[in-house]
User: Fold this.
Amino acid sequence: MTHERTDFIAGMEPSAPDAPVRVDAMSEAPSAVRDVTPLGRPSVELQSVSAAYGQRLALDDVSLAVRPGSLLAVIGPNGAGKSTLLKLVAGLIKPVSGRISVLGDRPLGHAHEVAYLPQAEAVDWDFPVTVSEVVTMGRYGRLGLGRQPGPGDREIAARALATVGMADAEGVQIGALSGGQRRRVFLARALAAEPLIYLLDEPVTGVDARTQEDLMDVLEAEARAGKTVIASTHDLICAAQRFHEAAFLNRRLVAHGPANLVLDRQLLADTYGGHVLVLPDDGGRLILDDAHHHDDAPRGERHYHDDRR
Ligand code: ADP
Ligand code: MG
Assistant:
């Protein structure tokens, strides 16, 4: 990841893999990468994790375990710490306390098995790079240091582009793409990495309904194939209908359970501080008044168990 050309994506300069990480590795020694998470064991685990920017606490004592095959929505108001949580798991920032385990190891321990998709705002869309170059970058983590992508890598990148319905856009500059096309291309970049874990920051924000359905179809297929998908979203209907689980975040973890809990008004009120307007039409449409960050996140998280899977 260190030689990857990601200077057009803010916050994508992870510390060198051998830099000291203030996170204890989990006690289990990692075995061969592809089976570090035997069935039933979490692929991603946070234990009492807190994170801060200077004096400002962004995450407070969050514990969360996610298993292979999960499609987890991280929801919460602006400033809730959703992006922070994803960056912590990606190893891009370090917690001030607590333990983070990714595939039984510290974050970045298996960096090439993890694909991180930043929020769209973090990307410099004027950067002169083509769609196929962006997607091929997804391969860099799997290449040895200094190795250039070969025909096999380009083939995987092309397949990933086809999967997201962007096969015709290979030579297009990323700046020329629509919002939905940009999200498709960045998801293709993540797919090209052939990761075990997807960390996606608002992958379906600002995209049209068709793109949202298409991208969710792709993510669902990845989860079905045993991958772990963690995605932040502001779209509660999408979270309820297309994800398996939801984590309700407002600096603290308010709740974690099956995705249909997203339709629980009390939980939403607890998470969004009452700034959720529910319009009672038959679609159960949810409108968020998400303009304010609430510093009074309720204490005491709730964990709900989903025995369906
Ligand atoms: P979300 O993604 O849920 O909107 P973030 O994780 O981006 O929330 O932010 C959580 C809190 O941390 C917010 O109060 C935000 O202002 C603060 N924060 C995020 N990134 C930085 C940063 N680079 N420097 C200082 N504060 C930050
Ligand atoms: Mg965010």
User: Anything to note?
Assistant: Residues 204 and 212 are 6 Å apart (CA to CA). The longest strand covers residues 56-66.
